[in-house]
Amino acid sequence: MASSLTCAGVIWAFLSFLCAAASCVGFFMPYWLLGSQLEKSVSFGTFRRCSYPVRDESRQMTVMVEQCGRYASFQAIPSAEWRICTVVTGLGCGLLLLVALTALMGCCVSELISRTVGRVAGGIQFLGG
């Protein structure tokens, strides 16, 4: 296989892919904040939550749902700040994956990545991070 990358470029491509994968896993996991509520362990991230309180109208009390899940809609995310964080982090993960996969393709295809493309990709990674 021909490559358009130097040895440093190949290392950059694989490290970029590992970092992008770690960022995406962190984005999708609901363990950003951990705590307890109603004597139950709770956790949530930007758009997922585990063990959350729900109002049970039949018993007229609040009960804990002990399962993980996404918010029902984008507007159900608790605050505007968390909504912004969800969008910004999601876009960052998308940019990081785009650059990483392009760099990995550069390991297999000759003349795919030039010096200018590498610099632009580094800038995009900076923005994505």
UniProtKB/TrEMBL annotation:
Record's keyword annotation contains Transmembrane helix: yes
What are the record keywords, sorted? Answer: Membrane, Signal, Transmembrane, Transmembrane helix
Q: Where is the signal peptide?
A: 1-21
Which ranges does the record mark as transmembrane?
A: 87-109
Q: How does it sit in the membrane?
A: Multi-pass membrane protein
Q: Where does the protein end up?
A: Membrane
Q: What sections of the sequence does the record tag as coiled-coil?
A: none
Q: Which InterPro entries does this chain map to? A: LHFPL (IPR019372)
**Gene3D superfamilies per record:** 1.20.140.150
Note one Pfam family from the annotation: L_HMGIC_fpl
Classify the main location.
membrane
The record's Gene Ontology cellular component field reads: membrane
Q: What is the protein name given in its UniProt record?
A: LHPL6 protein
What is the native source organism of this protein?
Pachyramphus minor
Q: Quick one: which gene encodes this?
A: Lhfpl6
